[in-house]
């Protein structure tokens, strides 16, 4: 950590301390702490608060109650924070998978796959869950320098994690899918690679998963995870596009 700024060193030490405190309690305790942290962040970060509320207004045009929108935004953010922190214990979680027969056949065939994932309440649940299912998952992540130790979490669970900030990151993904890999990319970030219409609104979206799917001539799957219970992750996969 010698090349880090003072603020980055403080942040790194804070992360280590939070992880240590979390390990002292059970999952229910961690959830309560995560929900408390989320409320603090939501209250102190105008950017996070505004983005969450505006997204809900776009998605729920029939919801006129500002109190209800505020409640849903806070609740959603609490689960997001909890999901982020739970990546440290993914190996302890139980996974179930929901997919139709066609998708199940694609997974079982062993072909390379491009999977567009959504964060929802479980930040990295999809690549970790699919690693248990396929054993050949690669994902892309931009981890800050002061938190570089997080890459060991991916390795610990057998997931190959490509650093988004490294030169030629996308070519690394191309090599992985060319060698029969399963590449999972988050696709619900704000992006402008391609124009799309979402909830009757013109917007942009990242095109990485589609490009990988077209390159490897393999189906594009969409996947998301739901934290149903405190110890159960349900991963839901759907076939979205098929390149012949």
Structural description of this entry:
- The chain is α/β, with parallel strands linked by helices.
- The chain has two domains: 6-88, no CATH class; 93-241, no CATH class.
- 47% of the residues lie in helices and 23% in strands.
- It has helices at 6-23, 27-44, 46-59, 66-85, 101-109, 125-134, 151-156, 169-178, 208-216; strands at residues 94-98, 113-118, 137-141, 160-163, 182-186, 194-198, 201-205, 220-229, 232-241.
- Strands 1-9-8-2-5-3-4 form a seven-stranded mixed β-sheet, sandwiched between helices.
- Strand 3, helix 7 and strand 4 (160-163) form a beta-alpha-beta unit.
- Helix 2 (27-44) crosses helix 4 (66-85), helix 3 packs across helix 4 and helix 8 runs parallel beside helix 9.
- The longest helix has 20 residues, at 66-85.
- The N and C termini lie far apart (48 Å).
- The model has no long low-confidence stretch (mean pLDDT 79).
- It comes from Paraglaciecola psychrophila 170.
- This is Lipid A biosynthesis acyltransferase.
Feature tags:
244 residues; alpha/beta; two-stranded antiparallel sheet
Helical/strand content category: alpha/beta
- The number of distinct structural domains comes to 2
Mean pLDDT: 79
Helix content: 40-55%
Distance between the termini: 48 Å
Beta strands, count: 9
Summarize this structure briefly.
The protein has 244 residues and is α/β, with parallel strands linked by helices. The chain is built from nine helices and nine strands.
């Amino acid at each position: 950590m010698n090349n880090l700024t003072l603020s980055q060193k403080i942040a790194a030490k804070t992360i280590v301390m939070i992880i240590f405190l979390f390990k002292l309690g059970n999952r229910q305790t961690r959830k309560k702490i995560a929900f408390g942290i989320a409320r603090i962040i939501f209250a102190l970060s105008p950017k996070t608060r505004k983005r969450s509320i505006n997204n809900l207004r776009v998605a729920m045009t029939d919801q006129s109650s500002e109190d209800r929108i505020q409640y849903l935004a806070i609740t959603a953010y609490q689960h997001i924070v909890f999901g982020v922190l739970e990546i440290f214990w993914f190996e302890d979680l139980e996974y179930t998978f929901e997919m139709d027969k066609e998708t199940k056949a694609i997974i079982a065939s062993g072909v390379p796959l491009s999977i567009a994932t959504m964060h929802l309440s479980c930040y990295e649940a999809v690549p970790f869950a699919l690693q248990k299912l396929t054993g050949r998952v690669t994902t892309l992540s931009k981890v800050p320098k002061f938190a570089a130790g997080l890459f060991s979490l991916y390795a610990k669970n057998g997931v190959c994690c490509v650093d988004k900030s490294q030169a030629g990151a996308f070519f690394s993904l191309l090599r992985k899918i060319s060698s029969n890999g399963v590449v999972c990319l988050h696709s619900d970030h704000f992006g402008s690679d391609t124009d799309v219409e979402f909830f009757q609104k013109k917007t942009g979206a990242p095109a990485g998963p589609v490009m990988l799917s077209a390159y490897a001539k393999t189906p594009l799957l969409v996947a998301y995870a739901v934290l149903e219970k405190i110890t159960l992750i349900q991963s839901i996969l759907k076939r979205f596009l098929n390149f012949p």
